[in-house]
Design goal:
The protein has a domain of 131 residues: Glucose Permease (Domain IIA) (Distorted Sandwich), CATH 2.70.70.10. The strands form 3 sheets. Strands 3, 6, 7, 8, 9, 10, 11, 12, 13 and 14 form a 10-stranded antiparallel sheet that branches. The protein has a two-stranded antiparallel ribbon with strand order 1-2. The termini are far apart. Helix 2 packs across helix 3 and helix 2 crosses helix 4. The protein is 47% helix and 22% strand. By secondary structure, it is α+β, with helices and mostly antiparallel strands. The protein has 4 helices and 14 strands.
Length: 348
């Protein structure tokens, strides 16, 4: 069998029959020749055994399979790389968008921070202005309060001096068995005024000031002609005319020491106010308190009546100091003056 290879055309013409004859002959022969003709007419003969041809064919098939597998793997790897490139490009786009979004948020945060700082500055300025206004208002109120305290303290002091009542003095403290560092007393004007006013209030609270009822006076304190036997006598209190059942009010804080039917005094109540002061209410239709009751100024203690040695409905009102009767009229004047002063201050 002859196999020709033309190098110029690089074409090998083999018919189907020739190929079949070729492989048929290969089965029959162990040796075949490959003839290559050149353009110059030279013929080259290449001897090739059947076994060698089988190796070449197997190698060619293996190479072809290797090329196919390598191509498939390369194509798969190329496709995967393309997908990865697209994913990376997508991620880069997302990262760029995220960076732009973060930048925008930072810009908005900075703007919001500037607005908040501006609002805070405005609030701080407003607070400073309010603090200054409050301080001025406080100083004005303190100044007004000091003036009022001074005026009222002087009024109370003058009134109490007019009726001969002395304020209790501060308790003196000894210098023995004592010590400690010296701390100067704060020099605040209102502290002294408040302390002074507090002393006055504690004293006045238990002083029987004012009238027990609003009726007219029918008999004053001191010497008088007795309304029953017409003889000269001494009246230890003041009589107020009233209607039967009119309310009788306590003139100071205190404690009820007596509340009973007391002979010529009729229905009788005695209230102790401390510091030696007692008030007596007599000829009542009924008393509404009992022994041991704690009484407040202005509290109702009984009703006007005509019990005991009496010529008509009235109230006998008496003030005792250290168990001796004193004129209630001076205490009534003090209450009247303080009430008029308070009304005048309220109008102003």
């Amino acid at each position: 069998m002859l196999l020709s290879i033309n190098r110029t055309a690089l074409n090998t013409i083999l018919s189907v029959g020739q190929i079949n004859n070729f492989f048929g002959n290969l089965k029959m022969r162990e040796q075949l020749n490959i003839i290559i003709a050149s353009d110059r007419g030279k013929i080259h003969k290449l001897p090739c055994s059947k076994k060698k041809l089988q190796y070449i064919f197997a190698f060619s098939v293996a190479s072809l399979l290797f090329l196919i597998v390598t191509s498939v793997f390369s194509l798969s790897l190329f496709t995967k790389n393309q997908n990865n490139s697209r994913e990376i490009t997508k991620l880069r786009e997302q990262l760029r968008a995220s960076a732009e979004l973060i930048t925008e948020h930072q810009r908005l945060n900075e703007a919001q921070k500037l607005r908040l700082d501006l609002q805070l500055s405005k609030l701080e300025l407003t607070n400073v202005k309010q603090a200054v206004a409050f301080k001025k208002e406080k100083e004005t109120l303190i100044s007004t309060a000091i003036s009022e305290l001074t005026e009222r303290s002087e009024l109370i002091e003058n009134i109490m001096g007019s009726i001969g009542i002395e304020l209790p003095e501060d308790e003196a403290t000894g210098t023995k068995n004592s010590g400690g560092p010296f701390i100067q007393q704060p020099d605040k004007e209102w502290d002294g005024l408040l302390y002074k006013a507090d002393k006055y209030l504690k004293t006045i609270r238990f002083l029987p000031l004012g009238r027990p009822i609003n009726g007219p006076i029918t008999s004053r304190f001191g010497k008088r002609r007795d309304p029953v036997n017409k003889k000269k006598g001494f009246h230890t209190g003041i009589d107020f005319r009233g209607k039967r059942g009119d309310k009788i009010y306590a003139t100071a804080d205190g404690v009820v020491k007596k509340a009973f039917r007391n002979g010529g005094y009729g229905n009788y109540v005695l209230i102790n106010h401390g510091n030696g002061y007692n008030t007596i209410y007599a000829h009542m239709q009924a008393y509404l308190v009992h022994k041991g009751d704690i009484i407040k100024r202005g509290q109702i203690i009984g009703l006007v009546g005509n019990t005991g040695r009496s010529t008509g409905p009235h109230l006998h009102y008496e003030i005792n100091l250290d168990k001796k009767p004193i004129n209630p009229y001076n205490f009534m004047k003090v209450a009247k003056l303080s009430q008029s002063t308070r009304k005048k201050a309220q109008k102003e």
